[in-house]
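User: Beta-galactosidase. Structure?
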Amino acid sequence: MSNSVTPRWLRTGSRLEYGADYNPEQWPREVWDEDVRAMREAGVTIVSLAIFSWARIEPADGRYDFAWLDEVMDLLHANGISVDLATATASPPPWLTTAHPEILPVNHEGQILWQGGRQHWRPTSPVFREYALRLVRTMAQRYADHPALVAWHVSNELGCHNIYDYSEDAAQAFRVWLRHRYGTVEALNEAWGTAFWAQRYGEWDEILPPRLAASFPNPTQQFDFKRFSSDVLKDYLRAEREILRELTPDVPVTTNFMVMGETKGMNYADWAAEVDFVSNDHYRLPGAQSLDELSFSANLTGNIAGGRPWFLMEHSTSAVNWQPVNLAKRPGELSRDALTHVAHGADAVCYFQWRQSRAGAEKYHSGMVPHAGTDSQLFRDVVALGERLRELSYVQGKRRTPAKAAILFDWESWWASEQDSHPTELLKYKQEALDWYTTFLDLGVRVDVLPASASFDGYDLVVAPILHVMPSALADRLTAFVENGGHLVATYFSGIVDENDHIWLGGYPGPLRDLLGLRIEEFAPLLAGDTVALSDGLEGTLWSDRIDLIDPATEVLATYKTGDYAGRPAVTRRAAGQGSASYVSTKLAPNALAPLLKDLAGRAGVVSELPSELRGRVELTVREGVRFVVNRTDEQLDISSLGGPEPTLAARGVAVLPA
Ligand code: GLA
Ligand code: GLA
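Assistant: Predicted structure:
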């Protein structure tokens, strides 16, 4: 990030930004005046503009209509609202796909993804790039000196719908990427293990993306295609950014990540260095861990941003439109959700979108101004949140204060552990990490969700759930962490393969065997619904390992009571170097995970900073001298023991206190 630009909200300590995607092209001109009036009432400071405006800005090839956008920019500026201006390239207009159908993506079955939705473009299409980058240049030239412009918003949610494209353009680009990675076809054959099933390649041109095949496509081919697909979108982000930096070197550039739910195609830990500030979009999923997952994503986003403040670019005031059943938010959730992001380092709270649409696929998606208009409870809640954010201006610019414990999160392990032809299809990488996170929250122990590539310095306890892909450098870092006094907890299916998805031989988990003091000859996954009993009344699901201790000093914390490996160790801990290395060989039920984690954290010296009566009931985060206390329950809580000015915390409320 040598020539990166620090955005205003990272340098001045002025205010938390508040706003939304603003799509004025969906509304008649007279609504715009009402929009800015209501924005001022709500305390809106910033909007993201022109995200889906390509067809309006460039109605025909090379013909531009900027009059309306000039007017919107001026109107916003006159009302003190800044603009995070999109490059408008997210969705190509019909004239372009009609003239150049070769920009349309192709799925793995060879079907074309047609126009009529959005994001129907191939990241590798030279024709798409030519048209899109011309628009970026035109936008940057037009608005370089506009006083409302404070940031550039590259495209929109890169990879939301077009992460995997199997077209001819993709095939060609994949070959270029592979040449760069491997140098020679021989090296690729070795890395892909093509001695298997007569897959040996003689020439680069024989290589394809993993299109629909008669049986399982080569696993390393699949793994590399995932890496490649993340890389080509990152490369596209760079291409737009370079034009913006050339024409507007003082305007910071971002693009909205999707650290949320099961969105896994883009390796954001790897993308973060490409933007001047990290932004994220988050939408809650229904279910018992809904709020925990929000917190997990915000936590990970903050750590991808290296602890620096980040920008919440989108979330929802209430329901979305794209889940099977779209729940409305309950009273208090609008504010609680927003402030939970702030608690994890967000310096901006923005929504999709400002005014709920009247037409189109998102007309049932909530906005800051609902169909009912500003005379509505939702808009009153929006105004109240704006006031709260103004009161919290002093939080702006404050970094996350690291925890003593970390959960490692690794996109490559996510990709590789869930590929086909594995011991079980039931394994869910993100769910395992989230279950550990929920347990930390239940114990009231602060934890950071950390990219596996980040430094472990300063952490006393590191949990590695399903850290499946283990290049030797990562194993060395984990070993050094333990040697130097760190406490590591690894779970089942960790340390199984190297960076080429080749098994580490000699017993699992190859590069961690000595550190853990054990050796696994075989694993036995469990059928859905089956459980395995452990000592102390604990229970496991999903997985079991046949463990032999290779260091007699390895402590057995729990043994299998039932199942194929009855009588053998299930959970172990080995004192190593100045620290320890523990292993959990099954998916522990929540009532088993909590006592185990409490014990392991305690032995690592990691304790709750909350009074016992609040543990599990609130989440605590810290930003440089400011404590955020999020009520995880639906009841009012007595928080007098925290020493703040208010003795109680409302149901779903968030208290902000001096540390
Ligand atoms: C994404 C997109 C928005 C909108 C929302 C709806 O985040 O970026 O344009 O479609 O989803 O939840
Ligand atoms: C079949 C095939 C083998 C192998 C096994 C795996 O029998 O002939 O090559 O793939 O299945 O079970």
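The first strand starts at residue 17 and ends at 22. The mean pLDDT is 97.
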